[in-house]
Amino acid sequence: MWAAAQILLAAIGLSAGVAVAGGLFAFIVELGVIADFADRTHTGDKILLYEDCAALGGILGNLVYVFQISIPVGQAGLSVIGIFAGIFVGCWAMALAETLNVFPVFIRRAGIVRGVTVFVVSIAVGKGLGAWLFFSRGW
Question: Is 33 exposed, middle or buried (0-12, 13-18, 19+ CB in 10 A)?
Fold first, then answer.
């Protein structure tokens, strides 16, 4: 009886994980992050490779997280991984904001005529400074 309950719970957990992961990757594809990167770098012929790499990265990231696999990369390696993760999250957030037309609507309603570049750079600097403060103080 106990083994059957554990198997059922494992099947439900695995199914839920597959559904959530599928939804997340569908969301990334719908936002057009991968296609936009391929378009901007003029490497549209390699889009299937990019999609495979994104899926593989998600799978490996989940395995490392779930099974708490230690990867000895040192301080420098951790910095590189952190930079890449930050770039990914930043690009994802900007793709979502672009899809929802957040910036054009805000700029039009706020009446910002000049300095749009400064506005966008200020957002990026503020986000970076906030992340640096958060991680340097150990909050």
Answer: buried
HSE of 42, CA atoms in CB hemisphere, 13 A: 0
> 31 lies in which domain range?
2-73
Q: Which of 129, 124, 125 is nearest to 97 (CA)?
A: 124
Is 46 domain-assigned? yes
d(CA 134, CA 139): 6
pLDDT tier for residue 126 given thresholds of 50, 70 and 90: confident
Number of structural domains (the chain) is: 1
Q: How does pLDDT run across 52-87, given as a tens digit for each residue?
A: 888 888 788 878 888 888 888 888 888 898 888 888
Q: CA-CA distance, 120 to 81, in Å (whole number)?
A: 25
Residue 99, pLDDT > 70, answer no
